Q: What sequence folds into this?
């Protein structure tokens, strides 16, 4: 049974949902059902159409590992050597040969020398002796056990051992981590801290990465002024520009900030065309709804672009537009600050990742229990800023929302821990219902 199925309610009746989505990481939003209102496409369908426009950036570059943090591997990286490269000691102690421990202990072995990590000597262990060895030092030929220092007693120039060590104890064998030729990381993997450490362990000083995705963005709206400016009555400070600047501040993105454009079709078209020449992905905010000042759909068409998604059954974010202009994908996010944020977070970021060639599947969602009870109108999948609360006895956290009227309330976002997803079919969320939660990872 779908875990989330039991949370979907329609007319008081529990509906067991399955998603018809073909996406590898679909939203079980219920939007693919008959309840999606006319003219709107489901969140899954919008994503599917957006991703269908994606051709990942083809150009690659070979760069040193110390400049590759956060970049996307263009090809898989394989281990050229076994790891570890050589048998080495897992402990500070004494390298011994079991054959030297004749009869019943205790045994006394003279210490013939010392081997520290980094010593390059490959001399064998002299018969009948022990070598003082340190963690990470190459185990000398002939040695088949390392005895921890604490298990020995030092006396004069020798050590006493009272217990026979196991064969191979405290020796990390060459190749036990990875055999030569094993794939370290697949193409499409982002070089995060763990991936970088693995590449470094395997001696990869250079890696082949895809070039950064170019994302050009601009805000639209004659009412917008930049933060810090004095406002006339009716004007507001531009917040979407700063949300996008922050969201695009990524190692695998080259962001091109094209500023703010008033609601003038000629200026919007000129900016859109310039952006499409400069970028793989063009993102604008505002001007995508149905009002007389919402010019972006007409501007996109006039510039020779095509519209592939016009409205999405999500709340907030209904007037989201996805299209193409020249070689670039175009995303027209709604102007309301929370709507712009949610549509970027849920759909835009996924398209940008696909353009970058990122193929890893990071866990994006957790299961939580509703900490509230609320009736709602079915039809659109909701993404509500929510805060995580306490854990129940099974280790599941509750999530609480302040209100479901969120699209203009930017103040809610900064307080929230993530977005709570309410499937489109649901007509009531009851206390304790299990829901999906998209945590924010950006602080
Ligand atoms: N008759 C209808 N009106 C509206 C509908 C509808 O279906 N029928 N949809 C509503 C929904 S839902 C949304 S969302 C908005 C989206 O409208 P637009 O994308 O055209 O956005 P604007 O009208 O340009 O702006 C909406 C709102 O957001 C403010 N805004 C815009 N840009 C910024 C920015 N960069 N920083 C801060 N705030 C911004 C703007 O001043 C407006 O208040 O349409 C509804 N209307
Ligand atoms: O869809 Mo709008 O984004 O609800 O405010």
A:
């Amino acid at each position: 049974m779908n875990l989330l199925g039991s949370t979907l309610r329609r007319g008081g009746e529990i509906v067991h949902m399955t998603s018809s989505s073909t996406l590898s990481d679909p939203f079980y939003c219920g939007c693919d059902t008959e309840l999606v209102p006319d003219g709107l496409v489901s969140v899954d369908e919008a994503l599917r159409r957006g991703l269908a426009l994606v051709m990942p950036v083809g150009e690659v570059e070979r760069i040193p590992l110390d400049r590759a943090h956060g970049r996307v591997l263009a090809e898989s990286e394989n281990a050229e050597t076994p790891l570890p490269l050589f048998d080495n000691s897992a402990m500070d102690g004494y390298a011994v040969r079991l054959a030297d421990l004749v009869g019943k202990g205790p045994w006394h072995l003279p210490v013939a020398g010392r081997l520290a990590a980094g010593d390059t000597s490959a001399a064998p262990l002299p018969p009948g002796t022990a070598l003082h060895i340190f963690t990470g030092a190459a185990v000398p030929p002939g040695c088949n056990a390392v005895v921890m220092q604490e298990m020995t007693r030092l006396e004069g120039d020798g050590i006493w051992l009272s217990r026979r060590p196991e064969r191979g104890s405290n020796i990390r064998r060459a190749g036990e981590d990875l055999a030569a030729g094993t794939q370290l990381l697949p193409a499409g993997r982002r070089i995060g801290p763990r991936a970088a450490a693995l590449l470094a362990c395997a001696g990869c000083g250079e890696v082949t990465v895809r070039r950064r995705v170019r994302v050009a963005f601009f805000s639209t709206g004659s009412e917008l002024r930049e933060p810090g400016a004095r406002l006339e009555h009716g004007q507001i400070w531009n917040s979407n520009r700063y949300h996008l600047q922050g969201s695009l501040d990524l190692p695998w993105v080259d962001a091109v900030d094209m500023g703010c454009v008033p609601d003038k079709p000629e200026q919007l078209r000129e900016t859109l065309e310039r952006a499409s020449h400069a970028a793989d992905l063009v993102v604008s905010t505002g001007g995508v709804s149905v009002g007389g000042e919402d010019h972006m759909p007409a501007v996109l068409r006039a510039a020779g672009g095509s519209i592939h998604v016009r409205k999405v059954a999500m709340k907030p974010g209904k007037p989201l537009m996805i299209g193409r202009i020249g070689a670039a994908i175009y995303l027209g996010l709604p102007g309301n600050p929370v709507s712009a944020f949610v549509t970027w977070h849920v759909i835009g970021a996924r398209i940008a990742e696909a353009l970058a060639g990122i193929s890893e599947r990071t866990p994006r969602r957790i299961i939580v229990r509703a900490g509230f009870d609320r009736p709602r109108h079915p039809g659109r999948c909701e993404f509500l800023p929510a805060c995580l609360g306490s854990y129940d006895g099974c280790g599941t956290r509750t999530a609480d929302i302040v209100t479901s009227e969120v699209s203009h309330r930017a103040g809610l976002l900064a307080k929230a821990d993530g977005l709570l997803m309410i499937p489109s079919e649901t007509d009531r969320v009851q206390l304790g219902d299990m829901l999906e939660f998209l945590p924010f990872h950006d602080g």
Observations:
- Residues 315-318, 334, 336, 339, 407 surround molybdate ion (ligand 2) (CB under 6 Å).
- The radius of gyration is 30 Å.
- Residues 214 and 264 are 25 Å apart (CA to CA).
- Residues 88-172 form a domain with the Molybdopterin biosynthesis moeA protein; domain 3 fold (CATH 2.170.190.11).
